[in-house]
Amino acid sequence: MNAIAINGSPRKKWNTAILLEQALDGAASNRAKTELIHLYDLDFKGCTSCFACKMKDGKSYGKCAMNDGLTPLLERLAGVDAIILGSPIYFGTVTGEIRSFMERFLFQSSVYTNPPSTLISRKIPTAFIYTMNVSEEIARQYQYPLHLDMNNNCLARHFGSCETLCCYETLQFEDYSKVASEYFDPKQREERRRTIFPEDCRKAFELGARLVSSPDTHKI
Ligand SMILES: Cc1cc2nc3c(=O)[nH]c(=O)nc-3n(C[C@H](O)[C@H](O)[C@H](O)COP(=O)(O)O)c2cc1C
Predict the structure, then answer these.
(1) Sheet with 82-88: strands ordered across
(2) pLDDT in tens for each of the 220 residues of the chain?
(3) N or C: which end of the chain has fewer CB within 10 A?
(4) Going by CA atoms, what residue is nearest to atom 4 of ligand 1?
(5) CB–CB of 203/195 below 8 Å?
């Protein structure tokens, strides 16, 4: 059994990456082989609307025909047992990189039947971990859940299920005193990092453990 986590943050050691590592540790605690992929290491673009994956009897039907730094990852994801995506919130939604990844990953197997369907025939438990500056209350005020639910629905439609974990009011800067940022109370952020973030890490660990022991794992 193997689980892959995909980091949609440019930072390899900060909030999103830490939570993804925790989720993978959880998966490993249930004997999964795990791997963390940093999307920003890959040289790729989003879907270019070539539609090769939709051509009847085409050689790329159901498969992204673009050939770039994402291609090997898309191929490997075809055989994975659990997938965990992670992204910081940038301007109210996920980062451009993870969005581009999702376009390529999901469009290739989307079918324009009525209602729309997917070519993926097996269930693969998925999860999406989000990190953000705002509090849960402000996230709701600014309609963040609309975007996040859309991701959740897309993943659930393709793979059968998707769990969401949100981590609010993250520590964004190592040293707030060096940054022009009146918006934040550095003490509150640091306190939250000490007290709430470990709880978020625990939730991420449990999420990872749960995903690979889901009854859907391995189901064809
Ligand atoms: C370009 C940019 C835009 C951001 N926009 C938002 C935003 O709209 N809402 C929010 O809550 N946080 C926003 N943030 C903060 C990040 O979401 C937050 O610090 C996150 O935890 C960073 O994840 P990381 O530590 O894994 O890189 C933004 C950060 C950057 C760099």
Answers:
(1) 33-38, 2-7, 82-88, 124-131, 160-167
(2) 999 999 999 999 999 999 999 999 999 999 999 999 999 999 999 999 999 999 999 999 999 999 999 999 999 999 999 999 999 999 999 999 999 999 999 999 999 999 999 999 899 999 999 999 999 999 999 999 999 999 999 999 999 999 999 999 999 999 999 999 888 899 999 999 999 999 999 999 999 999 999 776 654 4
(3) C
(4) 90
(5) no
- Residue whose structure tokens are 């910081």: 88
* b/e map 130-154, b = 16+ CB within 10 Å: bbbbbeeeebeeeebeebbeebbeb
Q: Which residues pair with 117 in a beta bridge?
A: 111
- Residue 83 φ/ψ, nearest 5 degrees: -130, 130
Task: Give me ligand 1 centre to Cα 134, in Å.
Answer: 9
> Full-prediction pTM beyond 0.90?
yes
Tokens 């990456």 correspond to what residue? 17
Whole-number Å distance, alpha carbon 196 to ligand 1 midpoint, is 18
